[in-house]
């Protein structure tokens, strides 16, 4: 017999920290470090726009067998349509940290069902967001099958892929899985990068709490010189963030790689380890060195270092497609950005996604067809205008 409770305050979460952490660290139980209670508490302590909504499932002896960490917040759902962002929905939503519930494989179906029932019983919950969802997503399916009126909407307009490297015994074993050309290209580019950068250039690995402060300072400097800073400004030197990194490093869950030249970082690979899986959270470089290929070369070297240090662990590149991921990965899986919605207002708002997806894919097909430039321009203009008229009409 299972039971569940919903934790909505940080005090309750702190009191449950140890059993939640033990489950999250079990191999395969969590999808990433964002589902660890230490990360979740960091999110709550540093955000003013969200509150906790953590559904905890226990067995008949009171032991935790699963949980789903949500943030409750006012959310603005938008869909990227070319250079525009089309507004879809504004209102209350639950955002799941990670791609599903945290549970051992044997308990996952049961935990999915209990969490879905708990969410369904809360009538004020109309929108549930799984930003980086593995597909098929068992929690989304459980919500739809719960009989509480939920339906699933995928807001990624193109199919998305999550790339990973299956557990390897050593870097040599991984390189042996590649064809000779790819293997040669990777090693040649790495040697060429170091030759161009000159003496004194080296990779620095950070994985202890004592190194975190210096790492955060260096990372903050190189991040500010990358294109990422324009898209998503982050203060890596923030006190709370450094405290989180130090805590994770103490638990063996934090690994950072920096490419150093003349005492400065010019590229970085930032990730976390948990449950036999390393997740590459972010990578970037100083744009002044972009032509040398420092970013992709450091990723390659960092992965070799990880396989040497932690043989037998999966390397997960996270959500989304990228050329360097395709080159390095051995496996891929479908993923997407999901909303599970119910109620007249929310359902009506999200219905616009289906025609948007059709129009977006239609535009891409037209762009790829061989045709005079003026004809393509007119086609794209007409389709874009029709799309925007449809959105305005629906809002009206």
UniProtKB/TrEMBL annotation:
KW tRNA processing (keyword) present: no
GO biological process: DNA metabolic process
Single GO molecular function: DNA binding
Keyword Ribosomal protein assigned: no
Annotated keywords: ATP-binding, Nucleotide-binding, Transferase
RecA family profile domain residues: 78-155
Pfam families for this protein: Acetyltransf_6
Listed InterPro entries: Acyl_CoA_acyltransferase, BioF2-like_GNAT_dom, RecA_monomer-monomer_interface
Name of this protein: CelD/BcsL family acetyltransferase involved in cellulose biosynthesis
Taxon lineage: Bacteria, Pseudomonadati, Pseudomonadota, Gammaproteobacteria, Lysobacterales
């Amino acid at each position: 017999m299972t039971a569940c409770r919903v934790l909505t305050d940080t005090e309750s979460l702190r009191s449950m920290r140890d059993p939640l952490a033990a489950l999250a660290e079990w191999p395969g139980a969590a999808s990433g470090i964002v589902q660890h209670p230490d990360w979740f508490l960091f999110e709550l302590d540093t955000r003013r726009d969200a509150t906790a909504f953590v559904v905890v499932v226990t067995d008949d002896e009171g032991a935790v067998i699963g949980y789903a960490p949500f943030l409750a917040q006012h959310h603005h759902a938008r869909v990227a349509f070319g250079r525009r962002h089309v507004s879809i929905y504004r209102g209350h939503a639950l955002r799941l940290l990670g791609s599903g519930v945290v549970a051992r494989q044997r308990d996952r179906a049961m935990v999915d069902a209990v969490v879905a029932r708990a969410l369904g019983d809360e009538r004020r919950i109309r929108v549930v967001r799984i930003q980086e969802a593995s597909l098929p997503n068992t929690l989304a399916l459980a919500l739809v099958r719960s009989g509480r009126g939920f339906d699933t909407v995928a807001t990624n307009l193109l199919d998305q892929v999550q790339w990973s490297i299956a557990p390897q015994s050593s870097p040599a074993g991984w390189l042996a899985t590649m064809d000779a050309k790819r293997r040669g290209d990777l090693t040649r580019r790495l040697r060429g990068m170091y030759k161009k950068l000159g003496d004194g250039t080296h990779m620095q690995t950070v994985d202890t709490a004592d190194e975190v402060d210096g790492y955060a300072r260096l990372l903050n400097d190189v991040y500010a010189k990358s294109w990422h800073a324009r898209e998503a400004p982050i203060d890596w030197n923030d006190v709370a963030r450094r405290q989180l990194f130090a805590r994770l490093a103490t638990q063996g869950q934090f690994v950072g790689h920096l490419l150093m030249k003349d005492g400065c970082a010019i590229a970085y690979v930032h990730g976390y380890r948990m449950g036999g899986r390393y997740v590459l959270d972010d990578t970037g470089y100083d744009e002044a060195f972009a032509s040398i290929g420092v970013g992709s070369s450091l990723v390659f070297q960092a992965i070799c270092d990880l396989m040497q240090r932690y043989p037998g662990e999966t390397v997960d590149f996270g959500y989304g497609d990228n050329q360097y991921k395709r080159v390095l990965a051995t496996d891929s899986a479908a993923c997407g950005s999901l909303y599970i919605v119910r109620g007249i207002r929310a359902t009506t708002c999200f219905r616009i996604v289906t025609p948007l997806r059709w129009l977006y894919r239609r535009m891409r097909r037209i762009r790829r067809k061989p045709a005079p430039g003026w004809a393509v321009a007119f086609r794209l203009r007409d389709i874009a205008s029709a799309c925007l008229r449809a959105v305005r009409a629906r809002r009206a």
